[in-house]
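Ticket #4471: structure export looks truncated?
Reporter: QA, pipeline team
Priority: medium

Steps to reproduce: submit the single chain below to the structure queue and open the exported record.
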Amino acid sequence: MGIESRVQNVIQQLHIQPKGVLLIGMWGMGGIGKTTIAKAIYNKTGRNFEGRSFLANIRENGEKIAGLVGLQEQILFDICKETTIKIPNIELGKSMLKDKLSHTRVLIVLDDVNTLDQLNTFCASREWFGLGSIIIITTRNMHLLKGRVDKIFKMPIMNESESIELFSWNAFKRACPTKDFVRISRNVVEYSEGLPLALEVLGSYLFNKTESEWELVLETLKRIPNDQVQKKLRISYDGLNHDEQEIFLDIACFFVGMDQNDIILLLNDCGLSAEIGISVLVAQSLVTVDDKNMLGMHGQLRDMGRGIICEESPRRPEKRSRLWDQEDVIDVLSRQTVRTLYTCFFNYGVKISKA
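Actual output as written to the record:
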């Protein structure tokens, strides 16, 4: 649902440099459909090239040098059909890619690239590929694309009608909800906020369940986000440094919808380089800044951040690093002595919202 229009939007740009080598970047948060769109473009246009290769999950494989070498070998197998070639190391692999592909018009998708080293492993120069080649890079990191690609496509979330249809195909195996489930389906779609991953996971989970079970699941999700969705989203958080993680958690707990300049001043006073940190979060698709300079965050990401704080002490809110829920705040204040509060504020850095 919604794939065809997004695919066509990218394909229209593929003829910008028909005589050169075109680099296309697809950027967005985890679970938004970058890989799905890239795969659809690959399948639709791949036959027009002399060779093609789709390298999936580079972020995951990039954690091991052997994984990157294996992907270099995959490119040569996919395009040159060389089944016996063995690449001893990454640097020699780069030379081999250049030698064997520099006169071939290829389509290559580099899926989920996370670092510049990973990108350079497969595409350090346009000279590696023949004229008319197209390289598509999907990533959560905008900084990786700036100044290196010809066009960046920001992947949009799904609109309401697209969300309803995608959710329905997973929950009901049809294009729209059944009559008795229309209201609650809209509630689930609203909770998912147009994120395809959440719509697919929740729809599949709710398939064949009763209306009362749906109500229970939706109520539970408000307190405990779905593990499968959160695991995918947390990859970006885990890749941040300590200060960037702290800034992300502060925004998730307290500052969504507030003026960026005010928050920068506040976080700088806490010893954090907020302006740099926020720019990293924006580049990683974890935070947005609208035209009024207000900080925003997808609801699923906000829930992930708050879930990370709850994991610090599931049963004892007073031991968590941040409190934002009014009931938790009142409970902690009512049970703590002045001495305990002093310890919490200044030794453990507990942050309590203005509520």
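Status: closed, not a bug. The export was complete when the record was re-opened. Leaving a note from the reviewer for reference: Confidence is low (pLDDT under 50) at residues 346-350.
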